[in-house]
Amino acid sequence: MCGDIMLEKLSIVVPCFNEEKMVPCFYQETLIYIKELAINYEIIFVNDGSSDNTWNEIIKLNTLDNNIRAINFSRNFGKEAAMLAGIRSAKGDYVVVMDCDLQHPPYLLPKMYYLLKKEAYDAVGAYRLGRTNNKRNESFLRILYAKIFYKFINKMSNINIKTNATDYRMMKRRVVNALLEINEYNRFSKGLFEWVGFRTTYVGYEDVKRTQGKSSWSFIKLLNYALEGITSFSTVPLKLSGLLGLLCASMSFLYMAYVIIDRIFRGTEVSGWATTVSLILFLGGIMLISLGLLGEYIGRIYNEVKKRPLYIIDEIINNEEDQDDK
Ligand code: UDP
Ligand code: MG
User: Fold this and answer.
1) Atom of ligand 1 nearest to the CA of 136
2) Are 143 and 101 in contact, with CB atoms under 8 Å apart?
3) Are 77 and 162 part of one and the same domain?
4) Co-location of 115 and 253 in the same domain
5) Candidate of 51, 99, 128, 136 to mutate for ligand 1, largest count of ligand atoms within 8 Å of Cβ
6) Candidate from 12, 16, 17 with most ligand 1 atoms within 8 A of CB, to mutate
C-alpha cells in the first residue's frame, strides 16, 4: 500500500435521482476507464432523495468496493445541491462531476485526465457535439430554446458558457477550492464553472441515449433552470425593462403631441376607443412583465438572505474523516 501514498487521487462525484438501474451500470462502465489511469480513486454517489432503490444499490456497491462513498439526502434537493455536496466531500487532487445515466460518457475520463496532467490545464469541460443526431429525442422547441438561452446568457453576462456545455467537468483541486468559496444559495454550476476562471479547455462528445430510467427534467424545470442562470449572472434584464419603459413613455409623448396638434390645426375629433383599450392593455402587460422580472430577482434575494442550507444529509457512508480517525 506504500506506493499508493504517492499516487494522486481522482474523485468522481455522481448525483443520483431514481437511478436504481443505472448505478451498477455506471460503476462497471466507469471503472474500466479509471483502471486505465493508474490513479487512486473515490466514487461519491449522492442520492438526491430517490424514491426507488437507488440507495440500496449504492450500499451494495459499497460492500464490493471500499473506494465508494455515499451521501444520502433527506429528500430531493435537486442536482445542483447534490453536485455541491459531492464536491464538498471530495478529497481528490482531481474532481470530476458526472451524471449517473452514462450520458456523460466515461470514455472521456482518460482524455480529460491527460489534458489536466500533461497539458497543464486546470479544468476540462465536456460539451455535446451539436444536437443533430438527437439521440435524446429532444423536441424541436427544446433545441431552439437551448440555442436562445446560450446566445442570451453569453450576450447578457460577463461569462461565456460554451454552447451545449454540460456539468461533466474534471477540475484540479485549486479550481474546486475556488468553487467551494462561492457561498451562493442559487447555484448555477455551468456559470460558476466559467466564473471561477483558470485555464480551461473543452472536449466534445456525441450525444448518448439514456438506456434505463428517464430524464427528470420537465419543461418547467428547464425554464426555471434557464431563469436561474440568467438571474445569477446578469442584471441586464432589469435594465432592459427600464429601457422598455423609457421607449414606451417617449412614444406615448410623441403620440400625445400628434393628437393635440391634429385637434388644434385640423380639428379632427378625438376618437378611438379601440386605441385606448389596446394601449392600456399593452402598457399593463409591459408593467406586469417588468414586475414579474423584478419578482424573479427579489425572490432570489429572499432565498439568499434566509441562508437555509442547500441540502440536509440523512446519512453518509464511508466518510473519509471516519477513516482518518481510525
Ligand atoms: N439528478 C439529481 N437530482 C434531480 C434530478 C436529477 O441528482 O433532482 C441527477 C440524475 O440522477 C442524473 C443527473 O442528475 O445523474 C442528470 O439528470 P437527467 O438525466 O434527468 O438530466 P438530463 O440528462 O436529461 O439533462
Ligand atoms: Mg441524463
Assistant:
1) 24
2) no
3) yes
4) no
5) 99
6) 17
* Cell, residue 74: 433527506
User: Do the bridges between strand 94-97 and strand 40-47 make them parallel or antiparallel, or are there none, so unpaired?
Assistant: unpaired
Q: What per-residue confidence (pLDDT) applies to 151?
A: 83
Distance 189 CA to ligand 1 centre (A): 14
How far apart (Å, rounded) are the C-alpha atoms in residues 230 and 191?
9
Tell me the whole-structure pTM to 2 decimals.
0.79
33 pLDDT exceeds 90? yes
Query: Hey, what's the cell of 297?
Result: 430577482
Q: Whose CA is nearest to atom 22 of ligand 1?
A: 215
CA of 304 to the centre of ligand 1 (A): 24
Residues 284 and 210 in one domain: no
Looking at the fold, whether 191 and 278 belong to one and the same domain comes out as no
Q: Are residues 64 and 155 located together in one domain of the fold?
A: yes
Which DSSP symbol is given to 68?
E
Centroid of ligand 2 to alpha carbon of 272 (angstroms): 55
Cβ neighbours, 10 Å, residue 158? 9
pLDDT digits (tens, 9 = 90+) for 179-234: 999 988 888 888 899 899 899 999 988 887 777 777 777 778 778 888 888 888 88
Which CATH number do you get for residue 119?
A: 3.90.550.10
What does the pLDDT read at residue 3?
A: 46
**Separation of 94 CA from ligand 1 center, angstroms?**
22
CA distance 59 to 95: 22
Give residue 132's pLDDT.
55
State whether the beta carbon of 16 lies less than 6 angstroms from ligand 1: yes
Ligand 1 centre to CA of 111 (Å) is: 24
pLDDT for residue 324 is more than 50 = no
Number of domains present in the structure of the chain: 2
Ligand 1 lined by 80 (C-beta under 6 Å): no
Domain check: are 207 and 245 in the same one? no
The answer on 315 and 297 residing in a single domain is no
- C-alpha cell of residue 286: 409591459
Task: State which residues form the domain around 188.
Answer: 9-217+310-325
